[in-house]
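Lab notebook, bench 4. The sequencing result for the construct came back, and we need a structural model before the next group meeting so we can plan mutations. Quick request posted to the team channel:

Model the 3D structure of this chain.
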Amino acid sequence: LPPLRERKNDIPLLAEEFLRQASEQGQKTAGLSKKALSIMMDYPWPGNVRELQNALHYALVKCKGRLIRPEDLPMELKSGRSSRRGPTRKLNPEMVQAALDRTGGNKAKAARHLGVGRATLYRFLEEFPDVS
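Done. Here's the predicted structure in token form:
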């Protein structure tokens, strides 16, 4: 398959599918605002489909309503530049706390919601012991 940046028309369909899957796994149900989708369509997606899926998981954690808005998207999407950082650097304390709150403190479920492995979440929690 060609890279996602060459298949921009697939982004809305993939996003819809990833959001449906997240809903089936017990995450909140949310749609995409037109502005959020526009930002996603303009992003180069160097991490390909996996990066898209992780961005949507991040947005679901941050999203306060039923619609993912631009402010819910990861910063690199809004800036148009990929961070290509290590997994723990993609997390922030507020985002992790929100995921833990949503999952009743279940770290395995929180890691899935955040789109990272359990070990990554545990490393993050060691760096930020105030997050519980």
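The chain has two domains: 1-83, 85-132.
Will bring this to the meeting.
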